[in-house]
Amino acid sequence: MRTETQTQTEPTRGLRYNRKAQYLKKKSEPYLYLLPTILLMVILLIIPIYMVIRYSFYDNVILNKNPEFIGFENFKEILTDQSFIVAVKNTLIFVGGSVIAHMILGMTFAMLLNTKYLGKKTNALFRVIFALPWMFTASVIAVLWKMLLNPNGVINYFLIELNLTSNHLEWLSSRDFALLSVTMINIWAGYPFFMISILAGLQGISSDLYESSAIDGANIVKRFFYITLPQLKPILISLILLDFVWTIQQFALIWMTTGGGPINATEMLSTFIYKLGFSKYQYAMASTSAVILLFVCTIIAIFYVRHQRGQE
To answer: Residue 245 and which of 40, 158, 210, 294 are 20 to 30 A apart at CA?
Structure first.
């Protein structure tokens, strides 16, 4: 026969079990919703990154069923490759020029749109015009600028009419102008992102700060350097870090305008990696280059995350 204590204990155990099951169900429910996204990230992100890193330590991968593990030999070879060094130099010029110009143009146009001297309709019109390049895809931008920079295109026509040059310049086919040309195209295509973000930051600055500084006798230059820039500093740092990562990975625009030519004049790390993998079928070397690029982008991403946490 069951004792009275046993009879009282069984409902208590069942109640505890039900509470524990409900607690685990409540805790695991968010992860069930996240499961499809996690699976996609593992399949499309984690596994490919792992494979690329693994390939960088092997020789003649994919084409060879039993590739040989060679350690850091691929890294030694790629870091001494003249084509890789040229791609790094071009990328630094391209990224540095683009980021600096994006910040200057974005700040200039944002301050112009934030002024009180423009009417509402004029302001709205300028916003649409200035933001227009950001709405175009890379293919549209490439086709548009290839037409404009054609030897018989509009830009050469105006230069000749203004007596700035007497020749039809080969903007995208000349080693002297190709890198400058693609950099200018990328600047034109990317500055609206800075402009819109900085404009949002400017509209968040209290007008009381400017009014107080004006009473104290501060001119426009001092107000810009002592009020505007310090208030925009968190936004500017975030924009620069993001733009650096995006620009260093720019591929479509370069590939559809110059293809890395002429004679490696516009060869970037992105086009260099693509050619190694899909033109020369040197998958191990392409993976090695990709790992180096991934390492650089990861460092920038770490700085970005730390900066965001510092803001919070």
So the answer is: 40
